[in-house]
Write a structure and sequence with these properties.
The complex is a heterodimer of chains A (291) and B (281). Chain A contains 14 helices and no strands. Chain A is mainly α and 291 residues long. By secondary structure, chain B is an all-alpha fold. In chain B, β1 and β2 form a beta hairpin. Chain B is globular, with a radius of gyration of 23 Å. Classes of the chains: A mainly alpha (291), B mainly alpha (281). Chain A: Keywords: Cell membrane, Membrane, Transmembrane, Transmembrane helix, Transport.
Chain lengths: 291, 281
């Protein structure tokens, strides 16, 4: 009894003594990594608002004395960029909807039924995200060329949808796993068909997960560079290759304009991720988001 | 409805038809087709092809393959180890009771689109007006010199992926029971000893998976390298992804591109076997 009594007395003291030092070390690590991690973001934003003459001075002014919105207004006036934006929106939205549809059915099959080949298929789906996309691209180009899809939105949408499936399927399987099977059994006893049970019970219950999966798919399509660069006609290209064509081809790059464009392109993705925060860890550990 | 007449298994397979069709069309068929094409002499733009057996592989192994393998390994190791170390340090720091909003702040580099990451660092590394040269008082062409280009590319990729490592490792740290550390510190273990004997063993599984996944992704990474250097200068940053892309879409040489892809796949399959074993364990 005395032994157990002395312990609680000694215990609070040890953490109290080490806390200030380890706290300081933690803050120091955060400060160093914070500079590496956040200074570039600061530089992106600052450059986007810095007048050209200051942005192209050397050494650059770390705290510009003047702020301008010129780069953003020039962006808004650029019809070509607006076209890329429309393409990005179309491709990303359709990809998101299609991904959710396809992956929800597949995830439901993985979650609620037991059948031969299920486990190996699940692993295959997971592994498929690890195949080199640059290699797939080479022969996909030929496939789309032969089917006449090359250059169209369809080529991009089908590719992006497929590449988001592993993550979306695993994410939604996790969500369907939390929907009690007794609900479905009850529906079956009441005479509902399997389709009806799926559509009126399981899918509505998984709605937040469906939104999250859709946003992941949206972001994947929005961010892609190499497929959009290769599989589409110039007038169907999305923003990432569009920005490369617009800004990096010239002799002198308009850096502040490019930073302003980068800022704008990042906004929808940042907004999506703020919404997705709580799905992040589960989604990440299930597989990949960005490859 | 018809749902009734099917068995559970048949219904499940029916649900998977759209997904499996997409996998077959967009991943499986192109992959198999690529592996077959590696044995032919074929152009991307002209129809027709002729069987050449192992000639494409012979050409590659006689030269181009080795520098590309070396570059890929250097890039992959650098761009995996650095974010791992930074992410681990950050996860440990954030797990010791720092405010939670910091975690969200650090996600920014990972969240912004890859091509924006490349633009941003192109600007930072710019030889004439870049802020890095501004801070150092130099005019180094970081991406234009064979000696520094790879390092610059690795730094960029590290910046883009350390937050992912942080999130993964933080998730692992948060599943560690606090009592373990308290017990160890009662027994007189210092911070370093506790990290070695409590944290590291607890984190082995998730750290292993995170490292391996990042390694596999970097092994096939394309965007950052392509936008920053295009594989140059003088091939100094030419990895498998860039080499396959260039051979196919700039050289129009489908045979050699897919043969190189075949060798690349072979190496990836070894890594994937590791991954699936770890994932199952």
């Amino acid at each position: 009894m005395t032994a157990t009594l002395t312990r609680p007395v000694a215990l609070p003291e040890a953490p109290r003594r080490r806390r200030p030092r380890s706290r300081a070390a933690a803050w120091a690590a955060v400060a160093v990594i914070g500079f590496f991690g956040l200074a570039p973001i600061y530089w992106l934003v600052v450059t986007a608002f810095t007048p050209d003459d200051q942005a192209f001075s050397f050494p650059p002014a770390l705290f510009p004395t003047e702020i301008t919105f010129d780069h953003f207004t020039r962006l808004a006036d650029n019809e070509q960029l607006f076209g890329y934006l429309v393409n990005s929106v179309v491709v990303s939205v359709v990809t998101a909807v299609l991904s959710v549809l396809v992956s929800a059915y597949m995830a439901y099959a993985f979650s609620k039924f037991r059948y031969r080949g299920r486990r190996s298929l699940m692993h295959l789906v997971l592994a498929s995200q690890l195949f080199p996309q640059a290699l797939l691209l080479v022969t996909l180009y030929a496939v789309f060329s032969a089917t006449g899809l090359l250059g169209s939105y369809g080529a991009l949408i089908l590719s992006f949808t497929t590449f988001t499936l592993p993550l979306c399927v695993w994410m939604l399987k996790g969500i369907f796993d939390t929907v009690p099977s007794t609900l479905m059994e009850a529906a079956a006893i009441d005479g509902a068909s399997r389709w009806r049970t799926l559509h009126t019970i399981a899918l509505p219950l998984a709605a937040p997960g469906l939104v999250a999966a859709g946003l992941f798919a949206f972001v994947r399509a929005w961010n892609d560079f190499v497929f959009a660069l290769t599989l589409t006609d110039p007038d169907r290209q999305t923003l990432p290759p569009g920005l490369v064509h617009t800004y990096l081809g010239e002799f002198q790059t308009a850096w502040p304009d490019l930073m302003a464009a980068s800022f704008v392109v990042s906004l929808p993705v940042i907004a999506a991720f703020m919404f997705l925060q709580r799905y992040l860890v589960g989604g990440l550990t299930a597989g990949a988001v960005k490859g | 409805m018809t749902g009734r007449k099917l068995t559970d298994g048949q219904f499940a397979w029916l649900l998977m038809v759209p997904g499996l069709a997409l996998f077959a069309a967009i991943i499986a068929y192109p992959l198999v087709s690529a592996l077959v094409t590696g044995f032919f002499e074929q152009s991307l733009v002209r129809p027709g092809r002729s069987f050449v057996g192992l000639a494409n592989y012979g050409d590659l192994l006689g030269g181009d393959f080795w520098p590309v393998l070396r570059n890929t390994l250097v890039f992959t190791l650098g761009a995996t180890i650095a974010p791992f170390v930074i992410g681990y340090a950050l996860a440990l720091a954030l797990n010791s009771g720092l405010p939670g909003w910091l975690r969200g702040l650090f996600l920014f580099p990972w969240v912004i689109p890859g091509v924006v990451v490349s633009f941003l660092w192109l600007w930072i590394f710019n030889a004439n007006y870049g802020v890095l040269n501004g801070l150092l008082g130099t005019h180094v062409s970081w991406l234009g010199e064979p000696g520094t280009a790879m390092l610059a590319v690795i730094v960029t990729k590290t910046w883009a992926s350390f937050p992912w490592m942080m999130v993964m490792l933080l998730a692992g740290l948060q599943t560690m029971p606090k009592e373990l550390h308290e017990a160890a510190s009662v027994d007189g273990a210092g911070a370093i000893r506790r990290f070695r004997s409590v944290t590291v063993p607890h984190m082995r599984a998730i750290a292993g998976i995170a490292f391996l996944l990042e390694f596999i992704w970097n092994f096939q990474h394309f965007d950052t390298i392509y936008v920053l250097t295009g594989g140059g200068p003088a091939g100094a940053t030419k990895t498998f992804a860039v080499a396959v892309y260039d051979t196919a879409f700039k050289g129009f040489d489908l045979g050699h591109a897919t043969a190189l892809g075949g060798l690349w796949m072979l190496l990836l399959l070894v890594l994937m076997a590791f991954y699936l074993r770890k994932e199952n364990a």
